[in-house]
Amino acid sequence: MTRFVALLRGVNVGGISIKSADLAELFRTLGFENVRTVLASGNVVFDVAVTATATDDAALKLRIETALSERFGYDAWIVLEPLSRVESVIERFPFDAGKEGWHPYVLFSSDAASLAELMAAAPTLDPADEIVVEGDGVLYWHCRRAVGVDSAFSKLTAKARFRSSTTNRNLRTLMKLA
Description:
CATH topology of the largest domain: Alpha-Beta Plaits
Strand content: 25-35%
Largest sheet: 4 strands, antiparallel
Distance between the termini: 16 Å
Helix content: 25-40%
CATH class of the largest domain: Alpha Beta
CATH architecture of the largest domain: 2-Layer Sandwich
Strand order of the largest sheet: 2-3-1-4
Number of helices: 7
């Protein structure tokens, strides 16, 4: 058994409402075990018997996205990560996560090219408002709360071309998942 985290993109925002109980039920009907949802923003932790190949992970991701789309009637996109990797990402957070007035975020992606494109914008950001640092298959993002969704990086990540492959989570949410 492998413990996975499914990070759903765009749940309970923009008119896509999914109750945590319904989300957990769907994952159970897919045959997953020890299903647990965390917060109401599309976070599911579950166990599944799979082999450790990228092909199997891609098939699992597609299976979940298809089931979400069919059940809840929207274009579902997830980032699927083994829990062990999420724990490693948490441990490597490079900023002071408790810095007053700042949000500690991690941007996950199922597409390395998207991360590279987003990282290319990092040198143009105002470090007084936000800082982005490349991690192992993620981008660590520290953003001043006062800037929030109006930040340059937030606006960039919201572009349509990144919607199907990226999602970000607050470090505190990731800690709850772990």
